[in-house]
Design goal:
Layout lengths: L7 H6 L19 H4 L5 H9 L9 H12 L2 E4 L7 H12 L4 H6 L11 E4 L4 H7 L7 E5 L9 H13 L4 E5 L2 H5 L3 H15 L3 E5 L2 H4 L2 H13 L4 E3 L11 H18 L4 E3 L7 H14 L12 E3 L1 H15 L12
Parallel strand pairs: 1-2, 1-8, 2-3, 3-4, 4-5, 5-6, 6-7
Helix pairs in contact: 3-13, 4-14, 4-15, 8-10, 10-12, 12-13, 13-14
């Protein structure tokens, strides 16, 4: 990470605030032979991820730059049973202005120069979010297909996707049927995700594996590959509702599959850790993982997202500390 220097803030200021989506992943025909050789050495995975936060240090201006970049990769999310349209609209305001103007000014940024990667909501609130974000370029992501369990009838799942796209969602976060993974029915998983992708039309498809339910790393690797073969534009760790959500171990396995898929097809697939990524320190660890495993392109929102809500508040606190030398109370950085 030699570019993480005191010039990082200057480099970030020259970057476009709203990069376009990456080119779509067209997918490939199902080929079970791609899965036959997939094995995961759990101990090796643990050894690799244990070094991510210890071998490299990102400090001062470089850390501020990386954290500002992390903000542009956040899918700012509210997926609660007590969500209201008012809460969603406040969340959209925060997505437009995720960092206080005085902090941005102290860092040399204009007020409109930083925004989150997307806003993620249930279908019910897609139209309100699209209206609240009009003109900002910030896409709306809708969770779909019976989120979070994914056990709705298949035809209903397809109609839900189509309804969210009709309301203006530019991204659809689908949940796969875990049973297909747990029983090794890879063809059924492929066919399901393929139909989800067709229902998305021009909207980008993010496939949620719910890795806390799958558990076995080799099955997570196979499920990742099958979803990409079926045309997923992103693969995502979790719904945020499982007992265990995003971890660095699971993420390493998934990004290695993204790398293998790129080597086989040339297609670039994005990655989204979701659930449990709530501190600036953890965000930096994921950014380091992406940089070292996949390269600089995977530090941009078209190929990397955090599914998070409280993460933004902690990043803003760290930026205030960088500017003032003091930590502020968490409640001074509300999300919505």
């Amino acid at each position: 990470m030699s570019e993480a220097s005191t010039n990082s803030l200057v480099v970030l200021r020259g970057a476009p605030a709203r990069p376009a989506h990456a080119a779509r992943n067209a997918g490939v025909a199902f080929d079970a032979s791609w899965l036959d050789a997939l094995r995961v050495n759990h101990s090796a995975v643990e050894r690799r991820t244990a070094t991510l936060g210890t071998r490299r240090a990102v400090k001062k201006d470089a850390q501020a730059a990386w954290l500002l970049k992390a903000i542009t990769c956040i899918d700012l999310t509210t997926l609660n049973g007590d969500d209201t349209e008012g809460r969603v609209r406040r969340l959209c305001t925060k997505a437009r202005h995720p960092v206080r103007a005085d902090l941005l000014a102290a860092l040399g940024f204009a007020p409109e120069s930083i925004a989150t990667g997307a806003v993620c909501v249930y279908h019910r609130f897609v139209a309100a979010a699209v209206d609240a974000l009009a003109g900002s370029g910030i896409p709306v992501a809708a969770v779909s297909t019976g989120f979070p369990a994914g056990l709705n009838p298949h035809a209903l799942k397809l109609r839900e996707i189509e309804a969210s796209v009709a309301d203006g969602a530019a991204e659809i976060d689908i949940v796969v049927t875990r049973e297909h993974v747990l029983t090794g029915n890879w063809r059924a998983l492929y066919d399901e995700v393929r139909e989800f992708r067709a229902a998305c039309g021009e909207a980008h498809l993010k496939a949620i594996l719910a890795t806390g339910d799958i558990r076995v790393l080799s099955n997570i690797a196979r499920a990742s590959m099958v979803c990409m073969m079926a045309g997923a534009d992103f693969i995502k760790t979790s719904t945020g509702k499982e007992g265990t959500n995003a971890t660095l171990d699971v993420s390493l396995v998934m990004v290695r599959m993204i790398r293998e898929y790129r080597e086989r097809t040339g297609a670039l697939v994005g990655f989204k850790p979701a659930g449990g990524v709530s501190t600036a320190k953890s965000a930096l660890a994921y950014q380091i993982l992406m940089k070292e495993e996949l390269g600089r392109s995977w530090l941009e929102p078209e190929l990397f997202r955090f599914g998070a809500s409280s993460l933004l508040a902690d990043i803003e606190r760290q930026l205030e500390h960088h500017v003032s030398g003091r930590y502020s109370a968490f409640h001074r950085h509300p999300v919505a």
